[in-house]
Give the backbone structure.
Amino acid sequence: MSSYYVTTPIYYVNDKPHIGHAYTTVLADVLTRFHALFGEDSYMLTGTDEHGQKVQKAAQARNMPPREHCDETVVRFQELWKKLGIRNNDFIRTTEERHTKVVRKILQDLYDRGLIYKAEYTGHYCVPCERYFTGKDLLEGGLCPDCKRPTAQLMESNYFFKMGQYQEWLIDYIQSHPGFIQPEYRANETLGFLRKELGDLCISRPKSRLSWGIELPFDSEYVCYVWFDALINYISAIGYGSDDAKFGKWWPNAHHLIGKDILTTHTVYWPTMLKAIGVSMPKSVFAHGWWRSGEEKMSKSLGNVVNPMDMIGIFGVDAFRYCLMSEMVLGQDASFTEESFIKRYNSDLANDLGNMLSRAVKLTIKCFDSKIPAPGEYGEVDKELMNLALSAAAPLRESVENMRLDRGVEQVLNVVRAANRYMEKTAPWTLAKQGDMTRLGTVLYTASETLRIVSGLLLPVMPEKMEKLRITLGMSPADAARAEYTRLSSWGLLVPGSSVNDIDALFPRVLPKENAASVPAPSAKAEEKKEAKTETVAVQGGKTVTIDEFFRTQLKTAKVLEAEKVEGADKLLKLKIDAGGETRTLVAGVAKYYTPEQMIGRVIVIVANLKPAKIRGIESQGMLLAAKTGDQLRLVTVDGGDFPDGASVG
Ligand code: MSP
């Protein structure tokens, strides 16, 4: 069995985790689960970077020993990962002995072999980046080339790693290993950096200036530079120097995920360090882009940093994972807005996937005593959907392997959309009404089997929700949680006769914040008008609404159970309707066009979230839709007539 080892950057414990941290960690988890699904032995590592000036400063600000500060803040990361359903195999803290031991061993080895030397040094130091720069690296005004903040000139004795001697080797390695740095344009960025002469790397900090670090084994006056220490986590955690079998198993297939800002450390410092200690290169270093807050950079000073816990509160864990994966094209920056996530959630999850599930399950419950029906003979339309579902796994795998998760997820959603169209074409609700149980069985089986496949393909992204979905389809909990690649390109694995379960909406629609109860109550005048005129929803020329604005209006199907004239108002009918398990009263101005008898039994479309209003002393809980021209009025209904009550329209 081939292996797959993926790492996240280890996060500084000087702050709270934000959406950028959550993104890389979810990405690593999703990749690990996908590779396991493809039959690979997969291993994920994450952790925290606990030494250095940033952490020391954060601890000082809290008036706390750094160790205590780390012990406290690390929990925020660990808890968030648990909450986000991250199944990391290990969590490394750079203050653990298993790590510090390896760092000291490597330092001693390089020192003994003359690859680390001491020298007097004058340089420009950037405190936030904790890096030295030479004069020629600096931006105008002596600013740091990375964070663009002022640097300080420092002169001190320090230890240096002979990084410069590997320059030609590194250029050659990058050029001859196209997948090593990804995306390709990031490899060009590193090669650009390597066009300038590569200096040696200062790997120490005098304790007089910074004491919070790993002491150099050959000079107790110094601690190790935080980046030199941190990068080693990728090998110390998997048994470098202590467990050869474990190290030999994972390292040959190591993949580092990083943000674009830490490219140089991972594609220049790290490869040269590995080269110096005689360890092969990781398979790939993939640099993703940054999440912006709308169009702005996300930063504490701008106060626009997105807290993952808030997003979990709005969307739930799995849907948040889904939005993270589908909203960022890997490698590029992405803009985060709550609206764009809500839009993605409502259209892909609440509408497409959630709706499809509820259509299939509700009819199975109603018409087949909650048991998956056996399919009869498949017709063309069934085979078309079947083939689409069966051929979804391969392109998804290709997209994952090419680090195009957004595209992979979209491909699966396209199958879901096709399945919804299939339901409309085959109209199982009509088959149910006609009593054509054989054909109905085939349609519902085809729909449910398609859902089994797509939910299996989406398990790595939404493990909990997809497991729930699969249990709803009558799969055993063990089967529901386990997806095997071959089972996702095989048909007929749902067992007829197994019991489906009724569930609440898997993805209840999320309303934008400002929407809740924002529909104004009608004035008395408006009420009068309503009597005379049944309202229609129309988009005026030139005045457009966004999809989000549109979906603030909840449209639903409902069946008219009872209808009667409203006393003293010749235009109004009082209707009792079933809006999907709930009975409501509606007052509608349709009496001139429909008799009460004509209304009873009809499936109409209503605005379900309209604020109730009293009309002629009767509380009207919603509004029906109708089209009007001149003196004609027709109800808006659903094609095919018989359709489940309470289905969403949009
Ligand atoms: N401790 C180092 C990494 C050492 S790895 C051997 C570090 N830590 S960090 O906590 O500052 O940043 C961790 C990661 O978060 C980096 O990959 C960085 O790119 C990423 N992000 C920080 N802000 C981000 C966004 N707004 N969006 C996406 N990722 C961002 O650097």
In short: The two ends are 47 Å apart (CA to CA). The first strand starts at residue 3 and ends at 7. The pocket of 5'-O-[(L-methionyl)-sulphamoyl]adenosine is lined by residues 9-12, 20-21, 23-24, 49, 230-231, 258-259, 261-262, 290-291, 298 (CB under 6 Å).
